[in-house]
Each structure stands twice: as C-alpha cells, then as structure tokens.
Amino acid sequence: MVPQREIYWNIPGHVLLYLIFAVSVLFFCRGVYQYYKRLQVGRPAGRKERPGERMRGVLSQVFGHGRILRDYYPGIMHFILFWGFVIMTFGTAMVALEADLGLPVMRGAFYLWLSLFLDVAGLAAIIAIAVFWFRRYVQRPDRLDTVADDGYSLLLIMFILVTGFLLEAFRIVATADPWAAWTPVGLVLSYLFAGLGVEDLKIFHRITWWVHLFSAMGFFAYIPYSKLSHIFLMPINIYFRSLEPKGTLQPINFEDEEQESFGVANVEEFTWKQLLDTEACTRCGRCQDNCPAYLSKKPLSPKGMTQDIKSHYRVKAPLLLAARGGANAEGDKSRQEAAATGETAAAVMEQSLIGDVISEEAIWACTTCRSCQEQCPAMVEHIDKIIDLRRNLVLMESRFPSEMQLAFRNMENNGNPWGVGWAKRADWAQDLGVPTMAEIGQADLLFWPGCAGAFDDRNKKVAVAVVKILQSAGINFAILGTEEKCCGDSARRLGNEYLFQSLAQENIETMKGYGVTKIVTTCPHCLNTMAKDYPQFGGHFEVIHHTQLILELVRQGKIKPARFLDSAVTYHDSCYLGRYNDIYLAPRELVKAIPGVTLKEMERREERSFCCGAGGGRMWLEEHGEEKMYVMRTEQALSTGAAVVATACPFCLTMMVDGLKFKEQEGVQAMDLAELIAQSIA
C-alpha cells in the first residue's frame, strides 16, 4: 500500500478560499508599502554595492541566526520557532501543489517523512512559544518592555499551530489512518476524539479547517502592522547594513555650498537607512543589556533611543509627506488625525528631536563602545545617529558640556587635548636614542605614541616600553616628534567634524611628506582613526597595534620573553581594539607567552567586554551619577582574583589605574601589555 494524504470529502468554497488569500495579500502589501512610503522622508543612503556579500549576510544572520544565538536561552528558542515555521511553510506549499495544482507530491516516503518533520516542528514551535510567554510574562527581564501586540502575536501563532494539530487529529480518527504513527502529535490528540462518529468528525474538521484558514490568512495580513513585521524588516535591514570598516563615519563636505546645516536636528535629516533601523528594531533589549551607559544608570538606552525616534518619525512622516503634496498627499491627509495621535499637525512639526524626543544628556552619555551594534540581531546602527546629533549640537548650536570646550581649544592650539605645549611632544623620548623622521628622512616603521604616550605621565612609561622592545628586536623605526598632532578621534566622536578634518589633513600631509607606509601605535583610537577615517582624506597607511607587532616579533624569535613573572593576569578588552577592529587573539597570546603568567578571564570579555567609560570623547568629560563605568569594570576585573589588570589602550589604562585607586586596591597593578613584555625580556 502506498501512503498518501487521503481526501474523503471535498472542502467547499475554493473561490472563497482564494478570495480570502487575495485579501490577506492585499493587506500585507498595503502594510509593506506604508513602510516604504514613510522611508521616503529620509535622505539618500546608497547601500547598493556588493549585493552578493549583502545576501550572504542575510542568509547567515536570518537562516543561521548568527547573532541571535549569542544569547543562548532566547536565541535557541527563536531558532526553533523560526525553523519550525520554515518547515511548516514548506509543508503547506507541498499540500497546495497537490490540492490546487494536482501535482502528486504528497506520496510515498516523502509524504511520511514530511508529516513527521511537520509534527516535530510544530510541537517544537509550541514549546518555544510557551517559553517566550513564560519569559515575557513571568520572568519579566528588565530589557523587555511588553505591549499588548506582543501577547497577541504569540497567541495568534499558538492558535494556528493548535488548530493545525486538531485538524490532523480529526483526520486520523475519521479515516483510521494506517500511517498515523508518522504524525505522532496528531495521533496522541486523536485519542481525545476516538468516540465521535465520522459525520461529527467531518463537521468539526470543516469548522476547524475554516477557523485555521482564517487565522493563518489573518496572521499573514497582520504581519506588517505588528511586531511580526520584523519577519521581513530584519532581513531588509541586514541586507542594507554598512559594509564599510566597523565604525567608519560619513564625512561632512564643508566645501559644499548647498549644505545649509551639519548633523541632524530633525528626524527627516536622517537617511532612509537610519529610519529603517528604527522600524527593524524588535525591542529585544540586547543593546540595552550590553550598554555600559545604561548599566551605570546614565540617561541612555540604545533601545529606548531607537524606539523614541521611531515613535516621533511615525507621527511626523505622514505630515511631512502630506505637506510635500504630490501623489502621496491625499492618502496621507486622510490619515493625518490617526497619525498625529490626537495632536495638532503644528505641534508635531514643531517638536524638537533634540530635547523633546532625545535628551541632550542621553546624547552625551554614549561612549561609542559599539557594544549595542555588536549584539543587535537586526544590525541596527545606533552610533552614527548619536554622532549626527552631536554634530548638530557642536557645529550648529554650540551646545555641549563645558569640559569639551577646553579639550577642543587644546587640540586647536596645541595639537593635543591635554593642552601641553606642542614643543614638548617629544620630551618623553629624550635619552632613549629614538630618531625623528625629520632627522633621518625615512624609516621602515613609524611609531605613533599618540597624545597619551607623549603627555600623560603614566602612559609615557608604555611608550618607553615599546621603544625598548623595538630596539631589542633591531627594528628600524622613528617618530614624528613635535610634528605629530592628535589623530582627531575624540574631536570626531564628540561631533566636532571640522576640527577632526583639520587635524587629520595636517597629519596626513606630514606623513606623506616622509613617505610613511607603515605605522604602529599603542592607542586603539589612533589605530581606528588612521586605518579607517584617514583614507577618506587620502591617507592610506598600513596601521597596526603594538600588541600585533610585538606578538609577531615573539613568533619570529626577535624577542624572547624569558624572565619568569609569577602572576595572575586578567586582560581588559579595549572597545576600539576589540569590537571595532576584532583584535582579540594577539593580546591574549602575548599574556600566554610570558613564563609564569596565568590568564584569568573576566565574564564580560571579547565582543561582550564592558567599556572603561573613556571612549567617544568621554575621556574629557566628567562622569556623573552614583555608578561609574570605570569602577564597575574595575570591580569585574578584581572579581577574577588577578594581581595584574592588563590593558592595551592608554585610555583604558588610565581608567583602570583610577578604578584601582578608588577601590583602594594597592596590591593590584594596572599595566599595559608592552610593559609586561618589556619586564620579561629585560
């Protein structure tokens, strides 16, 4: 006997079925079009290059759940629910091919195995939904904010699955299906209806079938108007993600005479991709769970900011489209009152994005650590929005914390945020025998100590350690000395694009004049800026971090850490070294290369590392509030029991030193990895 799906009566109303399907498709398309139309208020963004790479990203993140699975508990449940629906959608398509087109696909072993997969997938999806419900309504983690639509979506999906299994149970009993063992969930449910007659079963089956059909079609139509919209918005947002190197910011063309303002002051000044970010956000809260500003009780939540922008944008976009007139005007005018949620159009249009929607305190609280973006499964780009808002406040409004004015003035006048005279920039290298480019003309390697290495007393020791390592390895290197200026990282991340470009262009011209091709720096901020930002202005250099170079020298045998250092070390991942440049291995390999050293990892490490609090220009701003980021990170380091907190960033080193002083931990040292290596080869 060949197994097949037995159809023992004809379901009436095929015309009605197709009509319902057409209506659901119409409502779905209408919802999708509304998203598309709203996005038209944003500025152009491009994002069309390298389609193959973009599609590979969609496949790995959507079907492979790359980032979603980083958070195991909800990630695995979402993976199960997603693939459950993929399998069930495939099964529905197979049934439609036979029932509607007459193709004999539901036959033999294929039918049996598909039936089994469908039952297992459906049951797994029900379990996943139950877990989601328990997590959202019983456990209630801080990062989730539950609205009514979340519950409706879960209930609707559960109802569709349950009615599907009921249909299966009715069919098994009515037909005495000899192959029922291949549909185990339906088989178990069928025992509940074993006493019913065939005619009663037909009635129940028919009623349930139509209820199931209406629910499924309603689900499809409901998707664009609910949280379920992430089903199509997330893949689209992932496809249009930035393919530029991590953290690259778009420059401002100050020579463009048509540009009337800089940065973003109104929601319509964002690009359509930045607005799409807000629509694609699922409110999962992973960004918030990993935001050091939020966790230290600052007035910033990446999720909250994204949702606030979306709420404002959704209200304002129809009014903007209506004001522009044209083909969109009538449709938008007819929905103006609903869109404005009871407010007058004038009040909505006058609402300020900065101040009314997003507070200035929240804008300045961000350390640009990139933890939010690294964890976001929808690949929402939070930081460029914050930088755009900062640019407007700095360049157009001159509204920023008072400490920033001093840092900006110091960079303008002395080429460094410390404000020390530029003529003293090379004093740290006196008596070390370090040549300058001006003295020797060219060298194989330019050592860039940065402002911290040149002017900060604690970080001068790091620069000296690097020099000793390079000299021990016989490397031909030089420094710029007094010709070096601040790389401009803090200026750019604080929104002062004009100051950044002026510093960058001076440095680029200086290095080009000496034919510099390769640079090593101790500062991840300098590394990131010169490697990713400088090419926008013609500065193309090979830039490496000192941990990478030192590890290479160790592997080549040019330096040999031989001195035994009996110590337990914990390594703090710098945001701009790790999340921005994916340099996680080299620092750890250096620690392991030192005889006698034991590496003790913190819980928050690598891509989940906790920011020290100094990035994004925050090094020059006072941290307010009872909880301080640098203290929190110091406590995390101390919890390992290590005697040394190793860093690979001058800002991080400064913050760890301050954190240990605050915690009165005199027996624990904060050291740069270069210092540890220098001790071991001494």
Give an account of the 3D structure.
This protein has 682 residues and is mainly alpha-helical. The protein has 4 domains: 14-38 and 49-239, Transmembrane di-heme cytochromes, Chain C (Fumarate Reductase Cytochrome B subunit, Up-down Bundle), CATH 1.20.950.20; 267-316 and 351-397, Fumarate Reductase Iron-sulfur Protein, Chain B, domain 2, CATH 1.10.1060.10; 414-554, Rossmann fold, CATH 3.40.50; 561-681, Rossmann fold. The chain has 30 helices and 8 strands. It has helices at residues 14-39, 51-63, 72-101, 108-139, 148-175, 184-190, 198-222, 230-239, 272-280, 286-289, 292-295, 302-324, 329-334, 336-339, 345-350, 360-365, 371-375, 383-397, 402-414, 437-440, 450-455, 457-472, 489-493, 497-513, 524-533, 546-555, 585-593, 629-638, 650-662, 673-681; strands at residues 445-448, 477-478, 518-521, 542-545, 567-571, 597-599, 644-647, 669-672. The strands form 2 sheets. It has a 4-stranded parallel sheet. Strands 6-5-7-8 form a 4-stranded parallel sheet, with helices on both faces. Helix 8 runs antiparallel to helix 9. The longest helix has 32 residues, at 108-139. The chain is elongated, with a radius of gyration of 30 Å. The relative contact order is 0.08.
